[in-house]
Amino acid sequence: MIDNALQYNGVTGELVALPFRDKHLITYKQPVQRLYSLKVVTGVGNNEFNPKGTATRGEAAAFLVKMLDASQK
């Protein structure tokens, strides 16, 4: 959803290599690549993304703040 919202506003990240050890578990890899290139998502630490995990309210709020920052550049 965040990637779609940014693209709607004309902000498109690049398809970059992901450093995550669990990147093979990511279902929607291209949106994650674009969001990673824009520094909207950075993973959960230890070179992991944890695509099957859940985001806390704080993490979701951080995604939105980073999305707004990316859309203003």
From TrEMBL:
<protein>
    <recommendedName>
        <fullName>SLH domain-containing protein</fullName>
    </recommendedName>
</protein>
<feature type="domain" description="SLH">
    <location>
        <begin position="15"/>
        <end position="73"/>
    </location>
</feature>
<dbReference type="Pfam" id="PF00395">
    <property type="entry name" value="SLH"/>
</dbReference>
<dbReference type="InterPro" id="IPR001119">
    <property type="entry name" value="SLH_dom"/>
</dbReference>
<keyword id="KW-0732">Signal</keyword>
